[in-house]
Amino acid sequence: MYSTLGLIVCLGFLGTAATSSSHFHEYTISAPGINATFIPYGARLTSLIVNDKNGDPQDIILGYENAEDYLKDTETAHTYYGVIVGRYSNRIKNGTFTVNGVTSHIPENDNMGRDTLHGGNIGYDQRNWTVVAYNQTTVTFSLLDEAFEGFPGNIISYVTYTVSTLCSGPRWTYRVVSIPLDQPTPIMLFNHAYWNLDAFANPDDNTIFNHTLHLPYSPRYIEIDNIEVPTGKIGLVNNTPLDFTSPKQIGTDILSAVNYCGFNCTGYDNAFIIDRPRYSGSEATDLTVFTISSPVTGIQLDIKTNQQSIQTYTCNQLDGTIPVKKSQQHAKGKTTYVPKYGCIVIETQQWIDGINHPEWGQDEYQIFSAETGPSVVWSQHDFSIVKP
Q: How far apart (Å, rounded) are the C-alpha atoms in residues 284 and 261?
């Protein structure tokens, strides 16, 4: 059913903005119990299918039926569905940072020109990545960034997506390796997938309020200002709606999480710091740092990563105008749309805007050059069925 190819070379190695239909060609990888599909436009995950507790396949990733609709999305809602974001993800205060005494200014594309979000006006999400390797279980994309958006120096990035099956269940892994070719530069990439483990099959509620979330090593979070830019302060989740150090349903406290995600915002859009125990390590991958599950499908997702924080966004800004995919349309006679709080984005990354907070000691994890090792982001997603 799926092609097994040794090497594919496509147009767009220099990462121009997508215009050709080849940029929307679908590449599907599969293993027993899991299928994942990608397109070169943004090195984007467009579907991820695993079996639910009844053995029925469920697509638990938000997206569009027609791959070319992702370009329309960029021009309208700009959700960043399923993309690799970069060169530097999340927000940069005032679009400005200084590395080795050299100040760079990146276009402020967020909050009416007050900060940079996910790499500037034309981030990695809008670039046509090149497929450099593809077989039944893995696909690799590459992108040559020639100082896009005013970032210093040139870098080349490779993202490899892999699926596999273990005795415990199916697994999806991604690895992003970014190699600076000359100047020192900040680098922070990750995959920006939107999840709904119900697959919109809950007849009573299409939100993720029923999802149980657990961040066992996240007693702290990065405090933000009214426009979601870090203030430099580190907060404790204890006695706040942000406390997921013990498992709880997202709906338990979400409506009490007022102004934690910016001014006049209710919900979660926060960077939870991963405080691994002493026997582990700051970038160790031996521990599950994020667990989420659905009682409707029984699907559970466990995440391990080498990153030091997880930004968790509960789709507070979605407004019920984007339809879900046909496979996720379960209500007879009417169309289901993604409501506010209808999904969750799980962003494994380093401390956000760490390049503007040297007091955090994040430079070695965020600033790279031809003299350092590459930036490596690794995230492993294990799926299983919740035991009754």
A: 28
Contact 384, 168 (CB under 8 A): yes
Element (H, E) at 334: none
Burial (CB < 10 A; 0-12, 13-18, 19+), residue 122, is middle
247-290 confidence digits (pLDDT tens): 999 999 999 999 999 999 999 999 999 999 999 999 999 999 99
CA atoms within 13 A on the CB side of 315: 29
- Catalytic choice (108, 211, 347, 357): 347
Residue 91 burial (CB count, 10 A): 25
Strand pairing class (154-166; 169-180): antiparallel
Cβ-Cβ contacts under 8 Å for 48 (sequence gap 6 or more)? 34, 35, 36, 37, 59, 60, 61, 172, 193
Q: In this structure, what are the phi and psi dihedrals at residue 9, rounded to the nearest 5 degrees?
A: -115, 120
Instruction: Tell me how far the alpha carbon of residue 388 is from its chain's centroid.
Output: 29
Instruction: Please tell me the distance from the alpha carbon of residue 54 to that of residue 76, in angstroms, as a whole number.
Output: 37
List the catalytic residue out of 23, 118, 192, 357.
192
Q: In the beta sheet, which residues pair with residue 35?
A: 30, 49
What span, in angstroms and rounded, lies between the C-alpha atoms of 288 and 277? 12
283 assigned to active site? no
Please list the residues that pair with 116 across neighbouring strands.
Answer: 92
Q: Which of 274, 239, 232 is nearest to 253 (CA)?
A: 239
And the tokens for 217? 């090593």
Tens-digit pLDDT profile for residues 146-195? 999 999 999 999 999 999 999 999 999 999 999 999 999 999 999 999 99
Query: Rounded CA gap, 176 and 86, in Å?
Result: 11
192 is annotated as an active-site residue: yes
With tokens 């907060």, the residue in question is: 235
- C-alpha 284/C-alpha 289 separation (Å) is 11
Spatial distance between the Cα atoms of 166 and 341, rounded to a whole number of angstroms: 32
3-class state of residue 92 by DSSP: strand
Cβ atoms of 183 and 369 within 8 Å: the answer is yes
DSSP bridge partners of 376:
177
H/E stretch holding 74: helix 69-75
- Which token pair is 95? 């679009």
